[in-house]
Amino acid sequence: MAAMSDDEKYFLALSKMGKGSDQHYCVLNINGYCHPVSFHIFPQAGARRNSWIQAIRRDPGPVFNVNKASADNKTMASNPKFCGICDQRHITKPSSDWCSECNQALCTECKDFHALSRASQNHSTIAISNYLALDSSFPQLDEHCSVHDDMYVLFCQTHDCLLCLTCLEDHTKCGDVVRISKLTKDVKTSESFVDTLKSLSDIILNLSKIRYHLEENICDIKKQKDSILQEIAQMRGKINNHLDKIEHTLKIELGNEVDKQCSNTICKTLKDIKKKQIDIEKFRQQMDDLVCYGSDLQTFFSLRKITARINTTDQYLQRLDDDASLNRVSISCKIDRQISLLVEEVASLGTIQVTQTPGQLILDRSKDKQAQLVGVKKNSINDIKLKL
């Protein structure tokens, strides 16, 4: 089918007419209503085609409101898992492909008709699975104005918004309104697109470099932590070993002093005292026995002997007192001042120091550029000519 003029807007549909089989129809938008006409009988071009349009205007035949069709089309687009064209025929069929230019899901059969139609044969379709995968990341654009229910044809760069022909009345003072077709022509091969793609590649590369740099830094920090813990453990081990050594030395010195005082001095004196105490207690018992059983002669000679022993023992006790043998011995330990300072003043084995050095990281820096589409000339609204 030949290309149609602007006032003969159309879209494709599968419609079941009467009791016949499914037919492929071109639906014309004339006077606000859509008129289905079979491709098999619709004139391709010329006067006969114009006469068909005039005939439809005189006798519309089967029609349906274009606003309802637009609403149905939006409903189909909102459920891309099912064929939108079949949905208009109240048939539910799973979709296989998506046409972004028609903004419509297609089943296998409708895709074939879509590819055969001259109006859509140049449209590119993608598998519905790929579209659904992109659905969450790509912006969903409604090609119809929500206020005037007409197709967007212009773009206002001042307000960064799409415009239909009716919306244009509110942007008469805007000096940078351009046609969407001109704005989007060859956009995928434009310098701006290439620069943006290059910038994305550079940023991805830089992010990868920075990520590797940071992850490497984290690994280094963990290794440094393990090294510091090992150093702390080694120092603690050295301190423990040294303390164990000087503790052992001090204990040996303590034991030697205790043995010296107890065994050599106090214990020897105590042994002599115990022996003399036993002897004196025997003499005391002899005195009691002499009183009871001894004769006067026995008592006389025993008294002389006991008196001598008493004098000897008394002299021994006096010597003990004179030569400080009876001095009380006490043992104490004076901890070295350095050890006391270690406990009192040394509050930590060390301090953790954090230093920062410039990272040896070279980033790819894209050239500074203004974010705008290359090749799009800002036209005044007065330069736009409307063709009806």
TrEMBL record:
InterPro entries: TRIM45/56/19-like, Znf_B-box. One of its GO terms (cellular component) is nucleoplasm. One of its GO terms (biological process) is innate immune response. SUPFAM superfamilies: B-box zinc-binding domain. This is B box-type domain-containing protein. CDD domains: Bbox1. One of its GO terms (molecular function) is ubiquitin protein ligase activity. Residues 78-128 form the B box-type domain. Keywords: Metal-binding, Zinc, Zinc-finger.
